[in-house]
Write a structure and sequence with these properties.
It contains seven helices and seven strands; from the N terminus they run H-E-H-E-H-E-H-E-E-H-H-E-H-E. By secondary structure, it is an alpha/beta fold. The two termini are 13 Å apart.
């Protein structure tokens, strides 16, 4: 199994071009930047599956810088992360918010790294529905199921063990902004890392 050589990966000098993207994908370094939508989910899940197919790496490093997006696409990424035979480590930089936070939280326990200047937002999902009265009643079932999926996700990937605690601390009626240290104390992150050179360091 190949290990990532820290000297080969210089994030601070990274140039966003296709050649470097392919090179870093070969090292197991993936990016979830911007809105979480069908395109982003397709790209990330395809890369995770391809790395598993090659089976040459000890872990996958997923960098998350996202203000969130669609819950269904986020859970598609999470399900493939959990399916992966190769553990997916996550690093949160820039902004880790809404569905971006849920994806970040799903990283392998002990390897969910957040930087001290990352903006972190936890909140309840929102949506828009329209149609006849009967269809709106039917849609309510999926909305309730989605809220339960999110609650269950927090219960699995945070320190809280009751729905009430999750809703009191992380899913209040208003937005919950967290410091990196609070994310650590609530168990949604494992490490607050101040040294960029360690982002993709081996275990």
């Amino acid at each position: 199994m190949a290990r990532i050589n820290q000297e080969d990966v210089m994030i601070s000098r990274y140039e966003f071009n296709e050649e470097n993207r392919k090179k870093e994908e070969n090292h197991g370094i993936l990016y979830l930047f911007g809105e979480i939508n069908t395109g982003a989910a397709a790209a990330v899940t395809k890369e995770i599956i391809e790395i598993n197919r090659k089976n040459e790496l000890e872990f996958i490093q997923l960098l998350v810088n996202s203000s969130g997006g669609y819950t269904t696409d986020g859970f598609a990424i999470i399900d493939i992360m959990r399916w992966s035979r190769i553990p997916v480590f996550t690093t949160g930089i820039g902004m880790v918010a809404s569905m971006g936070l849920l994806v970040f939280m799903a990283g392998a326990k002990g390897h969910r790294v957040i930087t001290p200047r990352t903006s972190i937002l936890s909140h309840r999902f929102s949506g828009v529905a329209w149609g006849s009265h009967s269809n709106l009643v039917a849609i309510r079932k999926e909305e309730d199921l989605m809220h339960k999926r999110i609650i269950d996700h927090y219960l699995e990937f945070s320190k809280f063990d009751s729905r009430e605690d999750v809703e009191d601390h992380l899913l209040r009626e208003s937005d919950v902004w967290l410091t990196a240290e609070e994310a650590l104390s609530f168990g949604v992150a494992d490490v607050v890392e101040n040294n960029a050179a360690k982002f993709v360091a081996a275990v």
